[in-house]
Amino acid sequence: MSEFCRLVLQCRPGFEKEAAAEITDRAAEVGVYGYCQLKPHDGYVLFTCQQDGDARVVVDKVDFRSLIFVRQWTACGDLQVLDANDRIGQLGSVLDGYPECVELWVEQPDTTEGRELGTFCRKFGSALAQHMRKKGKLSKRKEARNTRLQLFVLSGSEIYVGIAPVNNSAPWLMGIPRLKFPKQAPSRSTLKLEEAWHWFIPSTKWDERIPLGGSAVDLGAAPGGWTWQLVNRSMFVTAVDNGPMNDDLMESGQVIHAEEDAYQFVPDKTVDLMVCDVVEKPIRTAALASDWLLNGYCREAIFNLKLPMKQRYQETVGCLNLISDRMTEAGVAYELRTKQLYHDREEVTCSLRLL
Ligand SMILES: C[S@@+](CC[C@H](N)C(=O)[O-])C[C@H]1O[C@@H](n2cnc3c(N)ncnc32)[C@H](O)[C@@H]1O
Question: pLDDT of 196-213, one tens digit each?
């Protein structure tokens, strides 16, 4: 077996090329070179490094939070082809060469075929975890605390076995936070904003960055899925959209509906948070968000960049570069984070704030 020569990179099915372009760039930044293998709509990419061990260099040195299209990663070796009669025994001997781990996650591609493996993954995971605990390979010891054993299951007999640092990988299985759709919310896109908060704002900072009783502007708000999340945080919201807002939301008394153009709207005073879900050219929204921060209209912005059909990675990088250039020119310290969320479709979501 080649030791930690590969990375399995999970992504939204259909975005394999973007995930491949991204990992190739980011690995090169830490001196790791390799090649990608992918099939469109498989929901993952395989990156094979030129040198054994280099997959661990990538997961240790590249900041996972900086990845946009990669939802989860695993540093692993070759694909394990297992005999259905003795999977645990075979994997047990492979794992002898692995470091001690604190937990075991069994993941699969986020595709129809992948989801059919869910029950197998759960059962196999609990049997393997028991076996590993007995062998002392799963433990709470200090040395094991930051290493998670991750299996990526392609079928009952084909499994990538690898590891990921707990503090530098997705904090949810398959990189998908399990969020419950709130019945009262007027649109499904409500979960985009909630998911963005989970990715971008540490739980200890929610009260500071999305303060109860705070103020927000929602650009392109109708019918009000994102506004609903803000109101649910007891925030006071100006919802900017020419379209109609949900009646129940308006009755909350916390929303003012401004029937104006999102790209012309100026708030009376600085708000805690601006959010924007307008379907527009992404470069225009990127410029709008940086204007809001630099003009002092808001303390933080969360916005969606709707991607074109082609050159989606290049388009995203172009938008992020525009924001970085503007912030740098203005001489301000800022944080810009971008992720293609589980609830995003042909789009990515960004968070921009001054530090
Ligand atoms: C994807 S929808 C927003 C959905 C909303 N975030 C929700 O959760 O219910 C985009 C909205 O942007 C609005 N819109 C498009 N261009 C706009 C503009 N220039 N100014 C204001 N609103 C705009 C549309 O009317 C539409 O309601």
Answer: 999 999 999 999 999 999
Helical ranges in the chain per DSSP H: 16-29, 54-61, 87-95, 112-116, 118-134, 190-200, 206-209, 225-232, 247-251, 282-294, 312-330
- pLDDT tens digits for 81-126? 999 889 999 998 888 888 899 999 999 999 999 999 999 999 999 9
Whether 306 is catalytic? yes
Q: Verify whether ligand 1 is closer than 6 Å to residue 222 (CB atom).
A: yes
DSSP letters of 250-318? HHTS-EEEE-S-TTT---SS-BSEEEE---S-HHHHHHHHHHHHHTTSBSEEEEEEE--SS-HHHHHHH
pLDDT digits (tens, 9 = 90+) for 14-56: 999 999 999 999 999 999 999 999 999 999 999 999 999 999 9
Domain residues of the chain, as ranges? 6-175, 190-354
Pocket test for ligand 1, best of 230, 242, 274, 349 (most atoms within 8 A of CB): 242
Any idea which fold 190-354 has?
Rossmann fold (3.40.50)
What pLDDT, on the 0 to 100 scale, is given for residue 114?
A: 96
CA-to-CA distance for 5 and 34, rounded, in angstroms? 9
Tokens linked to 132 = 């590993």
CATH topology of domain 6-175: Alpha-Beta Plaits (3.30.70)
What is the number of the ligand 1 atom nearest to the C-alpha of 228?
Answer: 8
Ligand 1 atom closest to the Cα of residue 243 is 25
Ligand 1 within 6 A of CB of 262? yes
**CA-to-CA dists, residue 195 to 19, 190, 226, 268, 314, angstroms:** 20, 9, 11, 29, 24
